[in-house]
Amino acid sequence: MTRRRIRVRGVVQGVGFRPFVYGLARREGLAGFVLNDGAGVVIEVEGEAAALDGFLARLRVDAPPLARIDSLEVTHAPTRGEAAFSILASTAHGRSALIPPDVATCDDCLRELFDPTDRRHRYPFVNCTRCGPRFTIVLRVPYDRPNTTMAGFPLCDDCLREYEDPTDRRFHAEPIACPVCGPRLSLPLEEAVGLLRDGAILAVKGLGGYHLACDAANEETVARLRARKHREEKPFALMTAAPEAIVELTAAAAELLRSRERPIVLLPRRPHAAIAESVAPGVPELGVMLPYTPLHHLLIADVGRPLVMTSGNRSDEPIAVADDEARERLAGIADAFLAHDRPIHRRCEDSVVRVAFPIRRSRGYTPSALPLPVATARPLIAVGAELKSTFCVARGADAFMSPHLGDLDSELAYRAFLTDLDLYTSMLGVVPERIAHDLHPEYLSTKWALDQDLETVGIQHHHAHAAACLGEHGERGPALALVFDGTGYGTDGTLWGGELLRCDLVTFERLAHLEPVPLPGGEAAIREPWRMAASYLEAAALPVPYPRWRLVRESLKVNAPLSSGMGRLFDAVAALLGVREVVTYEGQAAIELERLAGTTAAPPYPWVFGDGPALVRHVYDDLAARRPRPEIAAAFHETIAAAAATACAESAELRTVALTGGTFQNLRLLESTARRLESLGFRVLTHARVPPNDAGISYGQAVVAAATLPARARTTRQSTG
Asked: Are 40 and 97 in contact (CB under 8 A)?
């Protein structure tokens, strides 16, 4: 007989790991115990050596599907002569245990939800060890019911019997609940369904915050929601049980929709889909998700048609979480509230993805760790950018990105940044020793970083983009990186955004870039793409057709920073082609320009990467010659892709290229650029786990800081370039 002590680290709390260990030990005829502590799971097993070897082998191979074992540390321990195996009460030793993401309702719970004979029939909070809330309800580690927002719901006898039964799938399921002892809705479900069918807007409390819901087929209601939410044209997300009726589904898209993360997936809309035009005006795609909580399943089933399910906020604010806050902030938007009394501890918006890459990595994915190519010697935080704000906490070889926070230029988002950062570091048991930030001096995240009494490092915006793409692939470089986005503060004080970099995780060199042009009126030029068209036309010595230009041109004397952003070039061409002169949300002009190009075939213009005015001249001449606008838009896309690939081939001997930045959310540009590079023999890296837009900046900053700072002994304000 022998005894072994096993320390398990990874995602092993809140995923049914202790019940799994219990069952495995019993099957192998072993005695001992298992418990949670603040660092993971501790197991002691005693028995014959062969049985112990079999137990250890199956521990990793047969682990629950939601678990992730990062390490197993096995040591010998004195035998105790125990006769049985048990689950012991948790201890609070350590504070580094990993909390799993919230998980969509599993099939077994779903069957119970709609089974009239089941005691949880139509109970909106059914869950088990395989599904339900985790990240959003945990107060502290170890993950036990008293350490969650379920602590205020004592178990009834039936639930307690399931919770203590090793053969039950709710054995030690911490959020376990039923209609007798669990959370309750604030509004009868039948009344909520009637309101939605009658055209009302409901504030619905979800896992990580409130949604605003309404009938997606009711044009008047959707338009009213837009007006109240101050969201003029940005598309709304939809929730439906039958996505194939409204979007084109591939096998990969269907798998992503059905995944346990349940993200919003952007997919081509079906012609004549029974969806109000105001849901997604002017765009060819719909953002669709399946129900992922029991409450959502009941609403969708009872209403019988797709629902708009958008974030419970006003545009660009963080999602409302606390009940009182939600009633105050959403009172002028929602006609009624469908809330419940289970508190939300952590904000977590819905994730948004394309089949190829994430656009917003949030619910279902956070707080799962991303790997760092170079482990950080000391814990750090990276505070991200200004738009699509996220932060990242790094310790050892792991980086933990926050959920989506919104744009930090709003007071509520900045407050959420501060609150959520404190919650994250507390959850991870991290006391940061250094902070990575963007170089832009006016970003609120940068200002906050520089106000802290910690070592800081400034990371150039596009180096962070490149590092994010390299990092998620485990690459250290050197490599080439095409970084195309709207604006990022450059080391020369101008606004970059159309770069070819030669970089590794520590340094970068700017090999080629778009020639900078004035940004007339600064931020106003981002909201009004016609200004960029005028700026490019003037730089190309072409006539400017906009009557307002003579007045706006005066701003060149006082407020016209130089910009080489690829996003601004897309804006200029979109305005020139009459697609969009004024935008109501970020990237709108480029999105609609991509739609105009569609699948139209067109050869590229003869153009060398860098001279933006020369490319605008080609567009201008074709427009004057009355070439069809879809062909011009297609030629523009193909020109950028072809010239960028050629620039890579001519710039360095390196044969790996990362494609990153918000402009590469454009699928036509991404696919054409990748295809052309691969035909030239390049190995192409694109994003798969980290957003290519500014939501991924915090991870890129953490990658650079982890690789750079071990060699630094002093505070610095600027990354190497």
From this structure: yes
* Residue (of 4, 139, 129) closest to 59 by Cα position: 4
Q: Which residues partner with 37 through β-bridges?
A: 40
Name the nearest CA neighbour of 336 among 189, 546, 540, 140: 189
Q: How far apart are CA 424 and CA 432, in angstroms?
A: 11
**pTM score of the predicted model:** 0.92
Helix, strand or coil for residue 685?
strand
- Beta bridge mates, 396: 376
How far apart CA 384 and CA 445 sit, in angstroms, is 7
Give pLDDT, residue 94.
67
10 Rama sector, left if φ>0, alpha if ψ -120 to 50, beta otherwise? left
Residue labelled with tokens 């035998």:
79
In sequence order, what DSSP letters do the residues of 163-194 get, joined into one string? HT-TTSTTTT-TT---TTTS--BSS-HHHHHH
> With contact defined as beta carbons under 8 Å apart, do 464 and 700 qualify?
yes
Round to whole Å and give the CA distance between 116 and 568: 57
Angle between helices 629-651 and 667-679 (to 10 degrees): 40
Question: Within its chain, how far is the Cα of 172 from the centroid?
Answer: 30
Distance CA 173, CA 66 (A): 13
Using CA atoms, how far apart are residues 218 and 196, in angstroms rounded to an integer? 10
Burial zone of 210 (CB within 10 Å; 0-12 exposed, 13-18 middle, 19+ buried): buried
The yes-or-no verdict on residue 284 having pLDDT over 90 is no
Token duo for residue 513: 């870039």
Take residue 425 and report the two structure tokens written for it.
């570091």
Dihedral in degrees, nearest 10, Cα atoms 435, 436, 440, 442: -20
Q: Reduce the secondary structure of 469-514 to three states and give it as a string.
A: HHHHCCCCCCEEEEEEEEEEECCCCCEEEEEEEEECCCCEEEEEEC
683-685 and 656-660: which strand pairing? parallel
DSSP letters spanning 93-159: --S-PPPPPPBPPPHHHHHHHT-TTSTTTT-TT--BTTBB--TTTB-SSS--GGGBTTTTSPPPHHH
Q: How confident is the model at residue 710 (pLDDT cuts 50, 70, 90)?
A: low
Q: How many residues does the chain have?
A: 721
| Residue 309, φ and ψ in degrees, nearest 5 | -140, 85
Task: Provide mean pLDDT across the span 369-396.
Answer: 94
Q: Which is it for the CA torsion 240, 242, 247, 249, positive or negative? A: positive
Instruction: Count H helices and E strands in the chain, helices first.
Output: 21, 25
595-617 pLDDT, tens digit per residue, is: 999 999 999 999 999 999 999 99
3-state secondary structure 233-298: CCCCEEECCCHHHCECCCHHHHHHHHCCCCCEEEEEECCCCCCCHHHCCCCCEEEEECCCCHHHHH
Peptide bond into 146 cis (omega under 30): no
Find out whether 567 and 662 touch, Cβ atoms under 8 Å. yes
Question: Looking at the predicted structure, is the pLDDT value of residue 388 above 50?
Answer: yes
Q: Is 359 helix (H, G, I), strand (E, B) or coil?
A: strand
> How buried is residue 454: exposed, middle or buried, by Cβ count under 10 Å (0-12/13-18/19+)?
middle
Query: How confident is the model over 390-432, as pLDDT tens digits?
Result: 999 999 999 999 999 888 888 888 888 998 898 888 888 889 9
With bands split at pLDDT 50, 70 and 90, how would you rate the model's confidence at 709? low
Rounded to whole angstroms, the Cα distance separating 479 from 683 reads 10
Q: In the β-sheet with 85-87, what is the strand arrangement from edge to edge?
A: 68-77, 2-11, 40-47, 31-37, 85-87
Q: Residue 318 — very low, low, confident or very high, per pLDDT cuts 50/70/90? A: confident
Please give the DSSP secondary-structure letter assigned to residue 460.
-
Mean pLDDT: which of 27-31, 43-47, 114-118, 717-721 is highest?
Answer: 114-118
